Amino acid sequence: MAAPSGRSGRRAWAALVPAALLCLAARAAAEPGTAPGVAPSTAEFDVRPGGEVHSFSRSLGDYGCTFTYSAQGGTNEQWQMNVGVSEDNGLFSCSIWRPQGKSYLFFTQFKAEVKGAKIEYAMAYSQAAVGAKSDIPLKQEEFEITETTVSHREGKFRFELSKLVIVAKTPRDEL
Question: How many other C-beta atoms lie within 10 A of the C-beta of residue 103?
Fold first, then answer.
């Protein structure tokens, strides 16, 4: 299940995913050193306009996330990427966002790719929550989700991006 269908499914995921991501971060922060290599990692990076394709990657143990994009207009913007693994090693999360909420860049393309896990849920937003403002999701037809990627949909994407959230299921060794 890559993305829920229908309004009620999206609302259910929209409520569940932020809570799950907070739990992942809180557990890892509360128990440093208990599971080597699984503490969440947040890194800042510049999203640069100019029409060239750029990438930014983070990895955590066997899992990784790469954000590839091209943007126009304005100047560099500070963005963040957070990667985390659940305590039971069953989920890998990758969040990419502009902390100020709304990007003023004109994105011509974007793709977020996870390695080592398969996407269970993903959502892209034209505006990230900040202050009293809420996340504003892209329309479902503006982006597509595969087992390992979330990317713009050519001809449908309206060039606005401020946040991507991915939750992926990690492979399990059966006993």
Answer: 23
User: What pairing do the DSSP bridges indicate for beta strands 77-85 and 136-137?
Assistant: unpaired
- The residue whose two tokens read 């713009």 is 152
How far, in Å, CA of 167 to CA of 21, rounded? 8
pLDDT tens string, the chain, 175 residues long: the values are: 455 545 445 444 444 455 454 444 434 333 333 344 468 899 999 999 999 999 999 999 999 999 999 999 989 999 999 999 999 999 999 999 999 999 999 999 999 999 999 999 999 999 999 988 899 999 999 999 999 999 999 999 999 999 999 999 999 765 5
CB 58 within 8 A of CB 81: yes
Return the domain boundaries, the chain: 41-169
Q: What is the pTM of this model?
A: 0.80
Tokens found for residue 30? 């509360």
**71 close to 89: Cβ distance less than 8 angstroms:** no
Q: How far is CA 78 from CA 1, 36, 61, 100, 167, in A?
A: 32, 29, 25, 9, 23
Facing residues of 102 across strands?
127
Specify the DSSP class assigned to residue 60: E
